[in-house]
Design a protein that fits this description.
The protein has 6 helices and 20 strands. It has 419 residues and is an alpha+beta fold.
Length: 419
């Protein structure tokens, strides 16, 4: 009897194991079937995806590191305590004052603070005299306020604390002027009294001498010790090896701490860089190009003065670009990452996968009121994964602004209806 029960138990155990195996096989088979069904569905039912057509401009560019070479002269002082008295980027005449000399640090600090307060006091006096304005002035001031805000945001984005501070002050002044225009009463008398009191507390310390410059030009308080290292007059003679050596020197420069600043004696200065000859299509000596400074919104107009006319078989060249803009930012350029824009293309930007050929013509399919339409289009430029398509507002058959370009769909053809 006991043996019979033991056999029945073993039989049930074996049956249970077999059932579990069958269940596992069934589940796996169901999963495989689901995957097959899904693959078949996705192969025959492609979800429609679109991209809104917008006009944009892209550039064919050369990205490189350039050496900035200027005609500049460091200004050295006699030592002691000095305070710069000319703003960066400001023009200075021959024998003009670059810095003022003081008996002590305390005198220099007091004089600088008193001068700043004096300028602020004059600023409020000037604003006090601008109490009347017209409706047109209000519009202009509103536009100026927007510009101040944009300048402030850009300066912060570039970690330019000086620029942000200047933009914030200008923004405050703009809002103050607007309040005055709409009739808000501002007590300038109290502000002026407070400033005058602060000036009186600083005493009457005056400079004991000055430092002047032997040349005229544009002043910059920034020096890097390379002011006399690179030969301005021989810039077009630089070889690739010369340039590599110069860039290493510039990148390792720690600055001339003994100089009070420098004077740039020519507005014309140069960017010297290496470029592949293959990237210089339609670029010749004398061609004017835009050069964007990386990690900033600055774009400079430059003229190619040498390097574009190369010898047959050459693969690389030293390109020399001349620029005639000068300000405090440019005066500090030395080894800069730049983007040379050799060509520009303006049109409709679209994913490369959206371009099709229909009846021998290139174009894109667009969705208009649930119906597919083919728009013939000329490809102006091909990027890595996008194209720029020619846009002509007068062409009724061509691509239009805000068309919904189909980037993914199944069996597309002109006239197909999607519901």
């Amino acid at each position: 009897m006991a043996k019979t029960k033991e056999k029945e138990h073993k039989s049930r155990k074996k049956l249970s194991r077999t059932a579990k195996e069958n269940w596992a096989i069934g589940i796996v088979a169901l999963l495989i079937l689901s995957v097959v069904v899904y693959e078949c569905y996705t192969a025959t039912h492609v979800r429609l995806q679109t991209y809104t057509a917008k006009e944009t401009t892209v550039y064919r560019t050369i990205e490189t590191t350039a050496l900035a070479v200027r005609e500049e002269h460091a200004v050295s002082g006699p030592g002691g305590v000095t305070v710069q008295c000319v703003a960066d980027g400001e023009k200075i005449a021959k024998n003009g004052k670059v810095a003022l000399r003081f008996q002590s640090e305390a005198d220099a600090k007091a004089y600088s603070q008193r001068t700043a307060l004096k300028e602020k006091l004059q600023h409020y006096r000037d604003m006090e005299n601008k109490r009347t304005a017209t409706a047109t002035d209000i519009t202009a001031v509103d536009n100026e306020a927007v510009q101040n805000v944009n300048d402030y945001i850009r300066a912060l984005a570039q970690s330019d604390l000086t620029g942000a501070s200047t933009a914030a002050q200008e923004m405050n002044d703009t809002f103050t002027r607007r309040q005055m225009m709409i009739g808000t009463s501002i007590d300038f008398a109290a502000l002026k009294k407070d400033l005058q009191s602060q000036m009186d507390d600083l005493g009457t310390a005056e400079p004991i001498g000055s430092v002047t410059t032997a040349v005229s030009g544009v002043f910059s308080g920034y020096t890097d010790g390379c002011e006399s290292v690179f030969d301005y007059d021989q810039v077009t003679e630089m070889t690739a090896a010369d340039l590599d050596k110069a860039l290493k020197t510039a990148e390792s420069a720690k600055g001339d701490t003994g100089a009070l600043g420098k004077v740039i004696t020519s507005y014309a200065w140069y960017f010297v860089c290496k470029a592949d000859v293959a990237d210089l299509q339609k670029v010749q000596n004398g061609t004017r190009l835009d050069v964007a400074i990386k990690d900033s919104d600055r774009v400079l107009s430059c003229t190619v003065v040498s390097g574009a006319d190369t010898k047959p078989g050459a693969t690389q060249t030293v390109l020399v670009l001349q620029c005639e803009n000068m300000d405090s930012d440019i005066a500090a350029y030395r080894a800069e990452d730049i983007e040379i824009r050799t060509a520009s293309y303006t049109g409709i930007k679209a994913p490369a996968a959206a371009v099709h050929v229909s009846d021998g013509k290139k174009g894109v399919y667009v969705l208009v009121a649930g119906q597919v339409k083919f728009r013939p289009a000329t490809v102006l430029y091909s990027g890595k994964d996008y194209v720029i398509l020619a846009y002509d507002a007068q062409n009724k058959d061509g691509i239009r602004l805000y068309d919904e370009i189909i980037t993914e769909g199944k069996d597309l053809y002109n006239g197909k209806v999607y519901t």
